[in-house]
Amino acid sequence: MTTSELAPAERGRLLLRSLDRAALATLDADGGPYASLVLVASDPAGQPLLLVSRLAEHTGNLERDARASLLFDGTGGLDQPLTGARLTVSGRAEPAGDPALRARYLARHPDAAGYADFPDFGLWRVRVARGHMVAGFGAIHRFDADDLLIDPPAALTAAEARIIGHMNDDHADAIDLYAQALLGRSGTGWRMTGIDADGADLRLGGAVARLAFAAPVADADAARQELVRLVRHARGGGLAD
User: Fold this and answer.
1) What is the distance between the alpha carbons of residues 240 and 119, in angstroms, rounded to a whole number?
2) Phi, psi at residue 219, to the nearest 5°?
3) Which residue of 17, 31, 90, 171 lies most exposed, with the fewest beta carbons within 10 A?
4) CA–CA separation, 12 vs 47, rounded Å?
5) pLDDT in tens, 187-224
6) What's the CA gap between 77 and 171, in Å, rounded?
7) How many CA atoms lie within 13 A of 158 on its CB side?
8) Residue 2 scores a pLDDT above 70
9) Over residues 158-168, mean pLDDT
10) Contact yes or no for 25/68 (Cβ under 8 A)
11) CA nearest neighbour of 48 among 149, 134, 133
12) How many CA atoms lie within 13 A of 143 on its CB side?
């Protein structure tokens, strides 16, 4: 299935998961808008994770007023950017102390390990309330949180670190194959940084990619079967959109 064939909410979630940065909008001390660039990951449900410093203007804004929105821009590289997809999610930001979420963020952004332990840095999660996606001229979609997010299967979440470690240690060639044959990306040495019911996150240096699954997976065995299927598809020469 190509991206254009996905349901709008699935396409919006894929866009959010595919990008590792976003524009964060918060409210300053006078109640005015303040926009900044942040690096993002996502929790297993699809909600954005941010690692931010208390010294940053946006963090002070969130401590005063938790309302926030994030713009995920999928128009990069297009000759006509307004024909591309962009998604805004809105909700309330809150500190996230779960070590598993911290590990998920640092896997997505390994360079952040160099400052994540500084006393002024902390992980936050944006609890998504709604979404708004423009997927080209006249293609406007509004989502409730239930439309945009998934209910993450506990068995898969518990197995995530083991699956990632196994893929990176024992099947690095398969990860390169996903990136090259299915996603049209160049280079070798791609690594898997996350896996959830909808797909897997890949990274090579400063480049990120999203490997979407044909159907949601619920546990490690289902994930293995889908990853094997995708290898076979890649060896067959099929380029995914």
Assistant:
1) 43
2) -155, 180
3) 31
4) 12
5) 999 999 999 999 999 999 999 999 999 999 999 999 99
6) 31
7) 6
8) no
9) 97
10) yes
11) 149
12) 24
Two tokens at 108?
């997505």
Exposed e or buried b for every residue in 33-42, given b needs 16+ CB within 10 A? eeeeebbbbb
Mention every residue, 6+ apart, whose C-beta is less than 8 A from residue 63.
Answer: 54
User: What single string gives the DSSP state of each residue in 33-93?
Assistant: EEEEEEEEEE-TTS-EEEEEETTSHHHHHHHH--EEEEEEE--TT-SSGGGS-EEEEEEEE
Does 100 score more than 90 pLDDT? yes
Compute the distance between CA of residue 48 and CA of residue 17 in angstroms, rounded to an integer. 9
Backbone angles phi, psi at 123, to 5 degrees: -90, 135
| Residue type for position 67 | R
- Whether the full predicted model's pTM is greater than 0.90, yes or no, is yes
pLDDT computed for residue 238 by the predictor: 59
Q: What is the pLDDT of residue 168?
A: 98
Quote the pLDDT of residue 5.
77
pLDDT at position 6:
83
Tokens of 149: 């997010």
Total residues belonging to the chain: 241
Residue 115: C-alpha distances to residues 5, 27, 50, 56 (Å) = 40, 26, 13, 14
